[in-house]
Write a structure and sequence with these properties.
Strand order of the largest sheet: 2-1-4-7-6
Radius of gyration: 17 Å
Number of strands: 7
Distance between the termini: 36 Å
Shape: globular
Helix content: 25-40%
Number of helices: 7
Largest sheet: 5 strands, mixed
């Protein structure tokens, strides 16, 4: 767990750190590429295309997708139903070492629930590992709680809702592991529930955005590159619709 533990300690320290003056800002490492790895057990992948499209609109680095046959066994469990994020990340780092162009930011998308033993939280939507000093920059994203709808109760907007949630998690992670010191506001707000994740902005606060544009992490303007790409700024899906979908999913879980 040496790789993931280092990144986790950095994340915990960063969570309680105030914004540093401009002269104290560390070196920001902009990604050369962002690669999303679809773990072999993840079957509901309709959200991946709009997610990639949304990321491509705002990130300066190219975004690509790969499937990954990465078995996750019981030795990686933190509880009977949740995988320990640091253990999963360690396996992911070792499995993909040397596959990408440095500095490559790699994200593993899995359908299983995550737990971070160092945090007193019931679950984690995602976790990030690495910083501006490490050779790795990775994250693990769980769709177990962010996936909208299911095989029995579906709507035309489910994949877009899921993509927007994953977009917020991944962009926040990218900003953090570049070494950027942020205010913790807007898209960089920490969300401890699905309601908080849906409610928070999909955009960066002006100061954070300006710094990330200057560092070559974000494009200066969001691109408009095709009718199948969702526009993240000024979302077209109204908040009541997203709330109704979330409440319906909660009801279905309780019913089962």
């Amino acid at each position: 767990m040496k790789y993931a533990l280092h990144g986790l300690i950095f994340s915990l320290l960063l969570a309680g750190t105030s914004v540093a003056p401009a002269q104290e800002q560390p070196r920001v490492v902009a990604p050369a590429e962002v690669v999303l790895y679809i773990q072999s057990d993840l079957k509901r992948t309709e959200f991946v295309q709009p997610l990639v499209c949304a990321l491509q609109r705002v990130l300066a680095a190219p975004v690509s997708v790969q499937t990954l046959d990465l078995p996750l066994g019981p030795e990686l469990l933190a509880t009977t139903t949740q995988f320990e994020a640091a253990k999963v990340a360690d396996r992911f780092i070792e499995r993909t070492a040397g596959e990408a162009n440095a500095p490559s930011f790699r994200y593993l998308l899995i359908p299983f629930d995550l737990k971070v033993e160092a945090w007193n939280w019931r679950y984690a939507f995602s976790t990030s590992f690495g910083d501006e000093t490490t050779s790795y920059h990775v994250g693990v994203v769980s769709t177990a709680r962010i996936a909208a709808g299911n095989w029995w109760l579906q709507s035309p907007w489910d994949h877009e809702i899921t993509a927007t949630r994953a977009y917020k998690l991944i962009l926040k992670s990218i900003a953090r592991i570049t070494g950027h010191r942020d205010t913790g506001g807007c898209i960089l707000t920490t969300s401890l529930s699905l309601e908080e994740l849906d409610r928070k902005s999909s955009e960066f606060c002006p100061g954070d955005r300006a710094a990330l544009v200057a560092a070559g992490v974000l494009k200066e303007k969001e691109e408009q590159n095709g009718p199948r790409c969702m526009t993240v700024a000024r979302r077209s899906l109204p908040a009541p619709l997203v709330t109704a979908r979330r409440m319906l999913d909660d009801w279905w879980v309780r019913l089962r």
